[in-house]
Amino acid sequence: MAASSSSSVSMGDEKPHVLAVDDSLLDRRLIEKLLTNSSCKVTTAENGQKALELLGLGDGQHSFNSNASKVNLIITDYCMPGMTGYELLKKIKESPTMKDIPVVIVSSENVPTRIKKCLDEGAEEFMLKPLQKSDVNRLQCQLTKFNNPHKGMLCMGR
Question: What is the pTM assigned to this prediction?
Answer without folding.
Answer: 0.82
